[in-house]
Amino acid sequence: MEFNWTVEKKEPQQVKNFLKEQGISKGLLAKIKFQGGKIEVNQSVENVLFILSVGDQVKITIPDEKEHETLLVDDVPIDIIFEDDHYLVVNKPAGIASIPAQYHPNGTMANRVKAYFKAQNYQDQVIHVVTRLDRDTTGLMLFAKHGFAHAMLDQELRKKEVIKIYQALIGGDVLRLKEHETIKLPIGRDLSSILKRTIVETGQQAETEYWLKKRKNDQALVDIQLHTGRTHQIRVHFEAIGCPLLGDNMYGGKMDSGIERQALHCCQLSFIHPFTKQRLKLTSPLAEDMKKIVDQL
């Protein structure tokens, strides 16, 4: 894959410093040097120590990424929300893990995306998962289609510039919910379980902001934005305030509301596209099991 830039700084600078400003890491530079890529300045091949001048045309060629043989292929169609040369956003169904685990090497979204990449015969075959969802959470998942694209979005993630909005159906004491509130409670491991998390004073800081959208009797629909990324954060925080998610058996959610998994959906994903510099705002409608309940509120 090729990328092109025009040098705008008047001060002379080395190629390696210029490329660092464009987001090219030392690791990617090494890959370009040793795995078949190249750096060109004004159509001539140069090394990273070459001195650039204003107006120079810089082009890098990044070698193709060969597939990881250990990642199996699951030839199941995926629901594509957005795709370009750099990113793929899909709508994840319930009951599907994001990535393989030791005892579950297939049947995940990563396996399905690999099958799609192979069917399309893309030059880059490595699967880069940028944002994950729990097995039973539905909605938007973001993949990068090459390593440079992944690295660029990782920078946005660290700066909290990738915004995900969730919708959740909750039960319990929904009358205590405010129109808008931020839950700030530390989360740590529940010592009685390998998987479960709980509120604990010595836990990691966690911050969950929500907006009340609908409420009827003992059920409510809320929009949620996470400001930290702790395991099971939404589920733990809403249990802690007495309003567990419907269908969330692990955290005390009601199991008689017509939904058999935590009622959580990633409905919106927004980020600044690192290469076009345009803000993308992608949405996904509620899964049918959640929509049926919402329609009754």
Secondary structure layout:
Layout: E1 2-6, E2 13-14, H1 15-21, H2 26-34, E3 38-41, E4 44-45, E5 51-52, E6 57-61, E7 79-83, E8 87-92, H3 109-120, E9 128-129, E10 138-144, H4 147-158, E11 163-170, E12 180-184, E13 187-189, E14 197-199, E15 207-216, E16 219-226, H5 233-240, E17 264-272, E18 279-283, H6 288-294
Parallel strand pairs: 10-17
Antiparallel strand pairs: 1-6, 2-5, 3-4, 3-6, 7-8, 8-10, 9-10, 11-16, 11-17, 12-15, 13-14, 15-16, 17-18
In words, what does this structure look like?
The chain is of the alpha+beta class. The chain folds into 3 domains: 2-61, Structural Genomics Hypothetical 15.5 Kd Protein In mrcA-pckA Intergenic Region, Chain A; 64-159, 2-Layer Sandwich (Pseudouridine synthase); 164-266, 2-Layer Sandwich (Pseudouridine synthase), CATH 3.30.2350.10. The chain is built from 6 helices and 18 strands. The strands form 4 sheets. Strands 7, 8, 9, 10, 11, 12, 15, 16, 17 and 18 form a 10-stranded mixed beta sheet that branches. Strands 1-6-3-4 form a 4-stranded antiparallel beta sheet, with no helix packed on it. Residues 86-240 form the Pseudouridine synthase RsuA/RluA-like domain. Pfam families: PseudoU_synth_2. It comes from Enterococcus ureasiticus. Keywords: Isomerase.
Quick tags:
Structural Genomics Hypothetical 15.5 Kd Protein In mrcA-pckA Intergenic Region, Chain A; 6 helices; isomerase; RNA binding; Pseudouridine synthase; ten-stranded mixed sheet; 19% helix; 3 domains; PsdUridine_synth_RsuA/RluA; alpha+beta; 297 residues
